[in-house]
């Protein structure tokens, strides 16, 4: 497992890599553009090549790109749909350029529409975005289940992949905070194991490419996406240790998306905490 962190791209991709080095991260996650604006960020060739050179020399060697939250692939409104597709394609093309491990995407929200046409709109958008990019994986993230969001269950994620045509570039990113909020208990090794068994049965673990590691401010089944620093939330020390030591997660980037002690991102303290929790979990499983 590669313990990683979401980092700012202020200063460019090379500076993002430097932040990962400063925090002791083995992987980093970035937004491909300002998450509050539709305007895409232009990453010049020098910055892209500079990042690739740094990643080839030392950790963090893995980058994950998070598509911005404004994207809604289930949107029927022409303007929102066009902007969503443009932003998603931009993220995937940047992923192609930097050799990213994947672009993580929240599947979308049906916004009072019927479920069936909403799922088909998402599938259509995913097919189009994949066709307009080359090789970067597109990773659907499980959601906390708030409102009309799609992708709150393994069954629904599996259906989206099937509707899209089962492209091998389609994968999953599992967020432990979202799992808890959507009603999936991850607070013990046994409960987590049962959940991952279900994921394997419905989706297939060969599609699991990335993890998001966040404690939760809200309780099991709350359907509220509220990240908390490790291990001060509802998942707690035992649950996070179990998640970080799950044998079937070996080799995956495990990205922290927490505010950290200074509110500016995970930082070295939370990265070190994640490593310590992983060691606790490994020791508990061995014992």
Oligomer: single chain
Domain module tally: 1
Going by helix content, strand content and strand pairing, the class is alpha/beta
Major sheet description = 8 strands, parallel, barrel
Number of helices: 9
Please mark out the parts with pLDDT under 50 across 5 or more consecutive residues, or reply none.
none
Give the spatial strand order of the biggest sheet: 1-2-3-4-5-6-7-10
How would you describe this structure to a colleague?
The strands form two sheets. The protein has an eight-stranded parallel barrel, surrounded by four helices. It has a two-stranded antiparallel sheet with strand order 8-9. The protein has nine helices and ten strands. It has a single domain (2-286), classed as TIM Barrel (Alpha-Beta Barrel), CATH 3.20.20.150. Helix 3 (78-98) crosses helix 4 (115-131) and helix 8 packs across helix 9. Helix 1 links the parallel strand 1 (2-6) and strand 2. It is 43% helix and 15% strand. The protein has helices at 13-23, 45-57, 78-98, 115-131, 154-164, 176-181, 189-202, 236-245, 267-286; strands at 2-6, 27-31, 62-66, 102-105, 138-141, 170-175, 208-213, 215-216, 227-228, 253-256. The protein has 287 residues and is an alpha/beta fold.
């Amino acid at each position: 497992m590669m313990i990683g962190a979401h980092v700012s791209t202020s200063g460019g991709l090379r500076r993002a890599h430097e932040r990962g080095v400063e925090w002791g991260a083995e992987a980093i996650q970035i937004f491909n553009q300002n998450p509050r604006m539709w305007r895409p960020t232009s990453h010049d060739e020098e910055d892209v090549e500079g990042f690739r050179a740094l990643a080839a020399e030392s950790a963090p060697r893995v980058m994950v790109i998070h598509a911005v939250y404004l994207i809604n692939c289930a949107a029927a409104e022409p303007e929102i749909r066009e902007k969503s597709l443009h932003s998603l394609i931009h993220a995937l093309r940047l992923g192609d350029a930097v050799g990213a491990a994947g672009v993580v995407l929240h599947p979308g929200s049906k916004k009072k529409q019927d479920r069936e046409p909403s799922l088909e709109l998402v599938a259509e958008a995913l097919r189009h975005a994949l066709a307009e990019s080359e090789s970067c994986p597109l990773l659907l993230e499980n959601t906390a289940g708030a409102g009309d969001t799609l992708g709150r269950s393994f069954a629904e994620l599996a259906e989206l992949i099937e509707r899209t045509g089962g492209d091998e570039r389609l994968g999953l990113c599992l967020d432990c905070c979202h799992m808890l909020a959507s009603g999936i208990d991850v607070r013990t090794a046994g409960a987590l194991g049962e959940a991952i068994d279900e994921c394997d049965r419905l989706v297939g673990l060969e599609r699991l490419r990335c993890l998001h590691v966040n404690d939760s401010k809200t309780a099991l089944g709350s359907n509220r996406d509220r990240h908390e620093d490790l291990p001060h939330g509802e998942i707690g020390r035992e649950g996070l240790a179990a998640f970080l030591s799950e044998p079937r997660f070996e080799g995956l980037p495990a990205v922290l998306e927490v505010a950290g002690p200074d509110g500016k991102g995970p930082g070295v303290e939370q990265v070190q905490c994640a490593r310590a929790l992983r060691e606790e979990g490994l020791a508990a499983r061995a014992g």
